[in-house]
Amino acid sequence: MSDSDQSSQIYPFMVELSRTCNDVEFILVMGDESEATKALCKRENIEEVPHFTFYKSMQKIHEEEAIGPDQLVGDVLYYGDSHSAVVQLHSREDVETLINEHRGDDKLIVLDVGLKHCGPCVKVYPTVIKLSRQMDNVVFARMNGDENESCMDFLRAMDVVEVPTFVFIRDGKICGRYVGSGKGELIGEILRYQGVRVTY
């Protein structure tokens, strides 16, 4: 498949994605459209298409080349600003506030701890979003450990050495954790901490 074929196949998918992701703005640049776009591609070292660059607050945070629709969805969901069903945490204080809000309500908190450029973190995140919309009695939250020093301090304090790490918290206490990006395993662990007997 040529580069242009791959780009033309992903374009309709990207258009549909732009209609459903209200917190993400999509900008299409045709690399061979003009001398200016060719110069832009050269300046940005874009060698393969389709090429996706993700910006937040005017800062480049992630790039992908020659990816398919599934990976694009994962990237858009992971790097998008907000998803109402998943609480976005930006500091240790945010985590403490969330825990205190749910102390005593017997809800399980599933804290997804990852890093900005972690492939497995991106891969599992659509599952986290889907589960957050389906499990009303579970609170889902996410923190990127490399977002700032407060987040890094939290990772060190929690002894997180691999990502993604899912920390399970109930009534202010950590009741377990799962390290990995296996969708089935994650669902199994959440169910287990919800009191459902799970056999592997």
Automatic annotation (TrEMBL):
InterPro entries recorded: CDSP32, Thioredoxin-like_sf, Thioredoxin_domain
Stretches assigned to the Thioredoxin domain: 55-196
Coiled-coil regions listed: none
Molecular function terms from GO: oxidoreductase activity, acting on a sulfur group of donors, disulfide as acceptor
UniProt-listed Pfam families: Thioredoxin
Protein name per Swiss-Prot or TrEMBL: Thioredoxin domain-containing protein
Gene source species: Chenopodium quinoa (Quinoa)
